[in-house]
Amino acid sequence: MRLADFLVSEGTDKDLAELILFLGKQSLVVKKGFLGMPGKSAAGEKTRNVYGEEQMPLDKYADGVFIDGLKKTRLVRSVATEEQEQIIEIENPKNDFGIVMDPLDGSSLIDVNLAIGTIIGICPGKVLDKGSRLLAALYILYGPLTTLTYTTGKGVHEFVLD
Question: ∠ CA 15-74-5 to the nearest 5 degrees?
Answer without folding.
Answer: 30
